[in-house]
Design goal:
Number of strands: 0
Helix content: 55-70%
Structural class: mainly alpha
Length: 117
Amino acid sequence: MIENTDESLNTILMNEAAKIRKSNNVTTKQPCKEIQDNNINDDHTPSYYAKMPVQPISVMRSILTPDEFIGYLKGNIIKYAMRAGKKGNTDDKAKFETYKKWLHKELQDKQDKNEVL
């Protein structure tokens, strides 16, 4: 039986991400620097995210293709823009801005890669 700790869960997730990348012939990629540096830990981030050794966004960035990840970011931008002010005790505007910043960075990274090719 697998011990249910943050460390074992992270190991499982990262191993699964590697398997998925390999089966889809996706080369290993790193989260964009902002995500990798854990800049999501700000005043708007719940403490339970700050305690995680690997952030869910980093796992998603590792598993998803660049286009899938960009779609995920766009979906969250739409969600938080439409939900802003309608759900109590949330800072949807800050979440919107965070996802928008990440999307801009991803699109810039994608454009930079295309210019190199």
